[in-house]
Design goal:
globular, alpha/beta, 434 Repressor (Amino-terminal Domain), disordered N terminus, Rossmann fold, 2 domains
């Protein structure tokens, strides 16, 4: 679903300051709170190379929280239609699917060049007149390694991107804005985690609903399904992400030379080439011991399992029945777990569709469902 980016160092190119939009809070001695804007600077949003959109966009860095509860700084992009509207408008915090582990893969590094494929989906949301905040997640575009597939870190980054957008001073986007959460694949995991965390972590956000698709709700089951298959590289990317969040896991001690070389390659490249280079590998081919058989790894992976807490706003959940990367049964189990807890879940199985087909077929209905929530229409649970 994503292409390898060809833009190295693009983050630096979009961090130019403007007198019209001065850097905020950079020298503020007060402690950095989640969602506080650290820097802001104008950037550009292009769905495809050279494709113009009538939008204004800002690259931002903002305060958030790691999986261990420590403060951190995350980057992202806020996009607003340049339609002259000054009254209130909805805000969608959009979580992208897997882009890779290198900083050059970050959405904010690619929006100015039209090289982020998911920008075409984001543009469909922008064209509805909504503001959109897109997090880069922890460690993409900011110092440190990307905590790929670490659910709590992704969820806080998604929620705090919305808070940062509300604090930029954009007319019509403020603490009173109705907020929607949206994402697919890794973005589905991040969106679902944001939905579960909302009531405890960011109750100030007026979340109206979450649309999440292709959700890897159980990482152990996803890893087992992909071992030795076309998505096996994602297992090692996920292992690197967990190790970034929890260095005590000591991933390097489990890898053989080929495994260390592969993970090192992943950290400098993006998803299209990563999944090609890492495909059809077995965990046992690249390790001296299988970390997924160790209690400490199992415990950390379990901490990213979804379905343990009822989202406090309605959810639109969808999954392709032939998904080759995230088993359909994993998505169906998340629906069952949330329903058992009394959540308002509208479930959509997408017959005969794989992972890429799921995002293509499911994205527009998911956005339309959010539009109904913004319009004040009641959500219809299919539990």
């Amino acid at each position: 679903m994503h292409v390898r980016t060809r833009v190295a160092g693009a983050v630096a190119a979009v961090l130019l300051l403007s007198a019209a939009t001065p850097t905020a809070c950079a020298d503020d001695p007060a402690p950095l709170a989640p969602g506080d804007v650290v820097t802001q600077s104008p950037t550009a949003f292009h769905p495809l190379p050279g494709q113009w959109t009538n939008t204004r966009a800002w690259h931002v860095t903002y305060g958030s929280t790691t999986a261990k509860g420590a403060p951190n700084t995350v980057s992202g992009t806020v996009i607003v239609p340049n339609d002259g509207r000054t009254g209130p408008r909805p805000l969608v915090t959009y979580a992208v699917g897997t882009v890779g582990l290198g900083d050059s893969c970050a959405p904010s590094a690619n929006f100015p060049y039209g090289t982020a494929v998911e920008a075409t989906l984001i543009n469909q949301v922008v064209q509805k007149g909504w503001a959109v905040a897109v997090t880069d997640y922890e460690g993409l575009g900011t110092p440190g390694d990307h905590t790929y597939t670490v659910g709590r870190a992704e969820g806080t980054a998604v929620l705090d991107a919305a808070r940062a957008a509300e604090r930029l001073g954009i007319p019509g986007v403020d603490a009173g804005s109705p907020v929607g959460i949206m994402g697919y694949s890794q973005g589905g995991q991040a969106a679902a985690w944001a939905a579960e965390l909302h009531d405890s972590y960011a109750p100030d956000l007026r979340v109206q609903g979450t649309a999440a698709g292709g959700v890897p709700a159980d990482l152990m089951k996803v890893a087992s399904s992909n071992d030795g298959g076309p998505g096996s590289g994602l297992i090692f990317m996920a292992a690197a992400g967990q190790d970034a969040a929890f260095p005590e896991l000591k991933l390097d001690s489990y890898l053989n030379p080929a495994g260390r070389a592969l993970v090192g390659y992943f950290k400098s490249n993006c998803v299209a080439v990563d999944t090609t280079v890492g495909s059809f590998e077995h965990i046992t081919d690249l390790t001296v011991r299988n970390p997924l058989q160790q209690p400490d790894w199992q415990a950390r992976l379990a901490q990213s399992t979804l379905g343990t807490h009822r989202p406090d706003a309605p959810v639109y959940l969808y999954h392709g029945t032939l998904d080759e990367l995230i088993p359909y049964a994993v998505g169906r189990q998340l629906r069952a777990d949330w329903c058992a807890q009394g959540a308002n879940v509208e479930w959509h199985a997408l017959p005969l569709l794989g992972h890429i087909g799921g995002v293509t077929a499911g994205g527009v209905p998911a956005a339309n469902w959010l539009g109904d929530r913004f319009a004040g229409k009641a959500a219809h649970s299919t539990c």
